[in-house]
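Reopening this ticket.

The earlier resolution said the output was attached, but the attachment link was broken on my side. Pasting everything inline this time so it's all in one place.
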Amino acid sequence: MQHLSQNTFFFLFSLLMGSADLTEDGTLCCAGLLLASIQDPDPVIFLEAKMLYRTVVEDVPTGSYTIPLGQARIARSGGDITLVGWGQQVAVLERAVSRC
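Inline output:
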């Protein structure tokens, strides 16, 4: 079993079978996933990291839009290394890659 922070339950929610477990990597993603969650007929557990609201600022479209559930987002493609992150760590990885 992977290590868990004492303040997070993200991993525990992923053990619930039959549900979609989501976490956002910024405000744009949050809005699109939240709207998709509402429209999805299956159970969805939407987890938000409060730290993202203080660290990642993006413009959100005024119209209704959704982000497809069950698909990973490729933030930046390349051929030398694969970095996988979720939630707040996506912004950390994007900053690290931009320095290379």
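Reporter confirms the inline version is readable. The chain has a mean pLDDT of 76. The longest strand covers residues 20-23.
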